[in-house]
Amino acid sequence: MGIQPVNLPSRSDEIPSELGGLRMTKQRKEVYGVLLDQRDHPTAQDVFLRAKERMPSISLATVYNCLEALVGHELVKQVNFDRSPSRYCPNLEEHVHFQDEATGQIHDVVFKEGVRLEDFLDLPQGVEVRELELTLKGIMPGSN
Ligand SMILES: [Zn+2]
């Protein structure tokens, strides 16, 4: 399920000059850093506004290009909910998304340890799952 590049950075100040075969230009570092530093599944517009605070010269078009390159090199996941704008997630671990209907916030949810898809999905015999995209919606306790 996707290529997991080794030694992925967890914060913006750990981004190397090359990652997963992608040269990390100043702009790409900035965009990737925005995603690493605040993992709330922002839209491209959100990323643009945050990147602009640190790099005022960056344009929305550049942000889109950077996101496309990061997604293309499987460093970032593009997440689509209904018909709303795509959101971006730097978490490459196997996970699903839970959207809080009250706040619209999206949370990463991982499988319980040791649980595999085959344990709770009635998959046809011999199926090889290559990609997982699952979105849950509901109410998070404590959110009004
Ligand atoms: Zn996610």
From TrEMBL:
GO function terms (MF aspect): DNA-binding transcription factor activity; transcription cis-regulatory region binding; zinc ion binding
Record SUPFAM superfamilies: Winged helix' DNA-binding domain
Pfam family, one: FUR
Protein's GO biological process: negative regulation of DNA-templated transcription; regulation of secondary metabolite biosynthetic process
InterPro entries tied to this protein: FUR, WH-like_DNA-bd_sf, WH_DNA-bd_sf
PANTHER family listed in its UniProt record: FERRIC UPTAKE REGULATION PROTEIN (PTHR33202:SF7), ZINC UPTAKE REGULATION PROTEIN (PTHR33202)
Name of this protein: Transcriptional repressor
Biological source species: Roseibacillus persicicus
Gene it is expressed from: furR1
